Structures are given as structure tokens and as C-alpha cells.
Amino acid sequence: MDKLLERDVTYVKGVGPKKAELLEKLGIKNVYDLLQYCPRDYVDLSKPVCIKDAAPGAEEQVVLRARVAAKLPPSHIRKGMTICKAVFTDDTDDITVTLFNQEYLFSTLKEGEDYVLYGKITGNMLRREMNSPTIFPANSPDLIIPVYPLTAGLTQNALRGAVKKALDLIGEKIEDTMPRTVRERCCLCTQIYAWENVHFPRTLDGAHEARRRLIFDELLIYSLAVGYNRIMETNLNNYPLPPRSLEKFRRSLPFELTKAQMRAIGQIVTGMNGRRRMNRLLQGDVGSGKTVVAAAAAYFVYMSGFQSCVMAPTEILASQHYKTFQKLLEPLGMKIGLLTGSLTPKNKREVQEAAQRGELDCVVGTHALFSENSGFKNLALVITDEQHRFGVEQRAALAAKGGNPHRLVMTATPIPRTLALIFYGDLEISVLDEMPKGRKPISTYAVTGQLRERAYGFVKKQLDMGHQGYIVCPAVDENEVDLIDATSYYETLSNGVFKDYRLGLLHGKLPAAEKEDVMERFKAGEIDLLVSTTVIEVGVDVPNATIMFIENADRFGLSQLHQLRGRVGRGDSESYCVLISDNRSPDNIRRMKTISSTTDGFRIAEEDLRLRGPGDFFGTNQHGLPAFKIADLTRDTRLLEDAQSLSKEILDGDPALEKPEHAVMLELVKRLTDNGAEMT
Ligand code: ADP
Ligand code: MG
User: Fold this and answer.
1) pLDDT tens for residues 591-629?
2) Residue 166 — φ and ψ, nearest 5°?
3) Which residues, judged by CB distance below 6 Å to any ligand atom, belong to the binding site of ligand 1?
4) Ligand 1: distance of its center to the CA of 292 in Å?
């Protein structure tokens, strides 16, 4: 990259140490960062409103075009504080403009001349005012001005000024980061044009064109970084495991594996014998039988003389997997351990030491397994369930685990291919696109609270037939009075409608042992109806449960409802899901329609993604998606696809990015990686 761009921001005229400190808060350290810092919006000064139409007190800033009618004498209110006022008019009405400590600007205003003012209107209808607006001469060439995201202490004008000076500084003499051939083929403007026009566009089209180039750059560098790191990294296969027969495992199962499960197991086994370590996503709708595939993988690793581990997002799920693995694998000679946060320190240490000595073949646990110092003797496979529920740190810890073991990630969230690349890096995907035989589809009904009594009757009918059920309500804060909270709801139900039934209560704040106990009793059929928050959302598997009743269904995302609903329909009896929601907004009506008309997880996920955007889709601030500065993954899907295919093409021809024309790209890739961006 050009040396000029790498200069510290203080190299830009007018940027001293104090301003540099503020800029650093925005992630701006050098000239390049400054130029890449995009406005969040533009104001078109060529489209003013009339003063008489400008409403005082409105949140938005407005553009006025008015001439100076009178300048009032400045007043010095205290030491170092000057107030200057001027009255402007546009012949529809007057407005009083106040400037604080801007004597110089005030002195340049000429009575009778036209100016463009940009700011918030205060005062009232009789006397409108504007404090410290941005003021331009009406004949100013910059009629579209950028509006940046700011930090306290930094003004729009200061940032605009700095960017302008940075543009002056680089002039025309910067080498483009992207080779010309590539640029032309993708119909992208030059970098200089992009910087000039993203900051100070002549037209909004120009700004759009500029932004397109910068978004593309960002996505391309990210895609290159994912691919490059995968090529360069130490991701060679440290545990090449030659094929061996899993016949014994297959014969020990109480059911026939589906074709999709067989295929996935085959891909996993082959993958572990490849040149690179296996890094595979196992994607399958709720109930498609991912656990048994994971168990097959663990068994295969064990047969080769190595250890594996399973990471689950909740204790309930960890202990459930533990039991499933025990049931499936101990008869085949494997030793399974459980490691969760709620173990006593002594027990924890015992399990850890046993894993270190190689006495355990597979350890199942929550992420505590990884955040604490737990070693293995010869760990060759890390299985992660529902990884999108983990925070970034855990994923990083996982990636940093020594020995570079194979990785298998299970998820029930069907992720569009392009997003999967961003989210999981360049990993392979196995899909379970077939349900085990004999599954009955779940019938879903969305109703309003008026039908609650009838719906309770329906639940009772299921329980009377010897089945079990769930009633789910959202987790609530104290101030959300209109929502039902699990504990009081549980009491109401067990003293009322369901007093003749055995009820259980499960929520996140219960001590782990109690949770465990409730789940245990529910599994054993000692509880008919489980009142719960979403702690049961992931993975809980009780085939005798046939009815799911969800309160305030509009509080859940579509994919989440689908996950919840997946807790029923796991046996061979007809199953039902009742959604209660009084929210009549068009969006919600549409959501309820979607969820009750299809059980296709893919369609539901796509609708969900469309409605909520990727951040929310993966769960707020836990999603682990890289923070893009300019790109927006919902909006820029097309550009992302283009960037990804270009990145692949570039790396196919130049895997180490050694060619001179790729030098700048390589530098940007390295910079991204070194900045701690996580490349899965
Ligand atoms: P998920 O993919 O949602 O994690 P699970 O692995 O929990 O699904 O499996 C759901 C249920 O289906 C479990 O009770 C499991 O024993 C059962 N199952 C898995 N594979 C099959 C199969 N091939 N035939 C019949 N039942 C199966
Ligand atoms: Mg599961």
C-alpha cells in the first residue's frame, strides 16, 4: 500500500494529537482509515425547505436557504465564551441563528447575501431558532454534504475538514488496491474516485457508485482472507485417519440410518483422511438426527485410537448429549465423560485429569470445557452443537486449541451458502435433507388469546392420551408487565386448569441440579406438562411429547419458533403446536402464517433472515459475524457473491498472493487478520 496512506492521521493538516485521539475512537489510525471512514448519510443542500414549513422541535435536521437580514452585536457571556446572533429570512418567515464561539464564521456572513443553513429547528412557531447550524455560501460547490457517525467531542465539520485535507494530501497519486483488469471486469470505479465521491459527491449517483466499490473491496478482502488463511494456515491434517468399517456401530443402533445420515457419515470419515484437517458443517433441520451422525464420528475417531469432545451451548443439552453418547457408545467399549460448569471442582478435576491421561474417549460438556484449562491426551475431533449460539470468544478459544483437531459443527439453522462462507469460513457442508422414517408432520395453529381456554382443552386431550407437552413463555424482565412470566404462570396453571396433572417448571435461573432433575423427571414421564422458558429450545429430545403451546409467540424469531416446535414430533404420534399471539401487525400475521403453513426449516430461515437481517438472525451481539464497516450482508448479497467468486478465482491462480499486482491485497488481508478479525 502506498506509504502515504499508512501515515498516521496526524500527518493530515489540521489533525493534532487531540483530534487524533478522538478519531482513534472511531477506529481511524492512519490516512487510509480516514478515507475509508464512510458517511452514514448525505444531506442534499440543493433541496431546502421554506422557513415557515420548518417545524420547531423536530428531531431531524433541515436545510434552509435564506439571506442575512440582520446581524446582532456579539455578546461575551463569560471568559472565552462568545455568542453571536443573526436573523435570516427567506421571505416566508424569519429565523434567529445562534453561533457559539464562532466569531470568525460570523464575521464572514454578509447582510443581504444568501446562505444554506443545515441544523435543528428549535424555539416555537412564532420565533424559530437554530443553534450552531452548518453554514455554506449559497453558491458553494459542495451541495451534497456527508454526515458521519461521530463520537463525543468530534463535530461533523471537524471530520469533514480532516477528510477533505486527506483527499488533498493524496491527490491523484495513489496506486489502486485493485488491479485494473479486475476493476474493469466488475464495473467498479477507481479507488480515488470512490474516496472522493463517497465523501464529497457531486450527485447521489456518484456516491452510490463510490460506495459500491468500497463495499466490494471490503467483501473481497474478507473473502480473500478467509481463503488465504485456509490455504496458508497450519490447517494440514495432523490426524489423518484411514477408513475403517462402522458396521458394528450401525448394527448396534435401534433404527436404520437414513440415506442422508449415511452420506454425511461417509463425508465425515473421508474428510478426516484428507490432506487438510476436516472442517465440516453438519446442517439438518430439527429432528433430522444429527446427534447419531456425531456419535458415529466420535466412534470412528475412537476406533483410530484418538479422543473427541462435544461442546454444547447449555447444560441441559450437554447432559442430554452425554446420555445419548453413553447409550450409543459405551456398549461399543467407549468411555464417555461429562464436564459442565456445575460440577464440583473436585469432579471437574477428575474428569479433566482422566481426559488428560487418555482414560476418557469422548468428553461432552458446555463451553466451560474450553474456557478452562482442560487438556486431552490426543484430541482429534471437536464436535460443536449449534455453534451459532456461541459467542465469538468461545469460537476463538476453540480455534486456538492445540493440535489442530478436526472439526464438526452441527447446526439446525439452514444458512444460505454465501452467509455460511462468511459465518463459518470456507468449510465443507453436509446436509441431512431427509427425516427419519415414520415422522408425522407437526400441525401448527396460530390463534389469539381469546381461544386460550379451548387450546388448553386441546392440550389436556393430548395429556389424557398419555402424551406429554410443553408450555413455553418468553423470558421476561420485571418491567415487562404485560407478558406472562414462567414462574407465576406455572402457579396459575397448576392451581387452575391443569390442577389434575403433574406440572414441572424449567427456566434459566434455576440451579443446574434442579434443571437436571426436572428434565430427568420429564424424560421419565413423571411430569405431564413442562412449563418452560426457551431453555428447552435447543436439542431437548423427549419423543413422547406431542404438544407444544407457545405464549406470546410474536416475541420469538421465526427460526426460534421452528426450533421450539421441533421439540415435538419426535416420536411416531401425531404432534401439534399452538401459537398464542395477540399481535395483529401485518408483519406478525405474516410470520404466524409462515410458521403454520410450512415445516420446511429452509423456507422459514429465509423468511426470518429477510425480516430480521443477519445480526438478529444469528442472535443479537452473540452472532459472531464479522463487523463489516461498510457492507451490509442483507443488502449486499449480490456483491458478496461476486466478491466471493472473484476471490476464489484470484486464489486459484495465485494461492499465496505473491504476484506483484496482488501485493496490496495481500497487505490488506494481513492487516485484517492481524487486527484480530476471526477467520474461522
Ligand atoms: P436433531 O437433528 O434435531 O439434533 P436428534 O439427533 O436429536 O435430532 O434426533 C431426533 C430423534 O430422532 C432422536 O430421538 C433420535 O434417536 C431419532 N433418530 C435419529 N436418527 C434416526 C433414524 N435414522 N431413524 C429413526 N429415528 C432416528
Ligand atoms: Mg440436536
Assistant:
1) 999 999 988 887 887 777 777 665 555 543 334 456 678
2) -65, -40
3) 255-258, 261, 284, 286-292, 412, 436-437, 539, 541, 543, 570
4) 7
Q: Are residues 151 and 137 in the same domain?
A: no
pLDDT value, residue 23: 94
Q: What is the mean pLDDT of the chain?
A: 86
Q: Evaluate whether 373 touches 245 at the Cβ level (below 8 Å).
A: no
Contact 224, 665 (CB under 8 A): yes
Can you read off the three cell numbers belonging to residue 1?
Answer: 500500500
Domain shared by 462 and 525, yes or no: yes
Query: Residue 174 belongs to what domain range?
Result: 3-39+147-202
* CA 385 to ligand 1: nearest atom: 4
Under a CB-based contact definition with an 8 Å cutoff, are residues 575 and 568 in contact? Answer: yes
Q: Among 288, 538, 542, 564, which is best to mutate for testing ligand 1, by the most ligand atoms less than 8 A from CB?
A: 288
Q: Regarding predicted confidence, which is higher, 460 or 555?
A: 460
- Residue 392 pLDDT exceeds 80: no
- Do 10 and 124 share a structural domain? no
Q: Where are the alpha helices (DSSP H) in 555-661?
A: 558-565, 586-597, 601-617, 637-653
The total domain count for the chain is 4
What pLDDT was estimated at residue 388?
53
pLDDT higher than 90, residue 340: no
* Gyration radius of the chain's alpha carbons: 31
Provide the CATH number for the domain around residue 593: 3.40.50.300
User: Per-residue pLDDT averaged across 119-132, rounded?
Assistant: 91
Residue 59 and residue 8 share a domain: no
- Of all protein residues, whose CA lies closest to atom 27 belonging to ligand 1? 436
Q: Which residue has a Cα nearest atom 20 of ligand 1?
A: 289
Tell me the mean pLDDT in the region 211-217. Answer: 94
Structural contact between residues 241 and 272, judged by C-beta atoms closer than 8 angstroms: yes
Distance of CA 452 to the CA centre of its chain: 35
- In this structure, the answer to whether residues 397 and 271 fall within a common structural domain is yes
Single out the residue in 377, 397, 432 at which a domain terminates. Answer: 432
Measured CA to CA, the distance from residue 424 to residue 281 in angstroms comes to 8
Instruction: From 144, 195, 177, select the one nearest 37 (Cα to Cα).
Output: 195
The last residue of one of the domains, among 432, 453, 475, is 432
Q: Ligand 1 pocket check: which of 327, 433, 541 to mutate, most ligand atoms within 8 Å of Cβ?
A: 541
In a domain, 666, yes or no: no
Q: What is the pTM of this model?
A: 0.64
Statement to judge: residues 299 and 331 lie in one domain: yes
**In this structure, which amino acid lies at residue 51?**
I
Whose CA is closest to 399, among 235, 201, 631, 523? 235
Pocket test for ligand 1, best of 292, 317, 322, 383 (most atoms within 8 A of CB): 292
Q: How far apart are the CA of 601 and the centre of ligand 2, in A?
A: 14
Do residues 35 and 54 both lie within one domain?
no
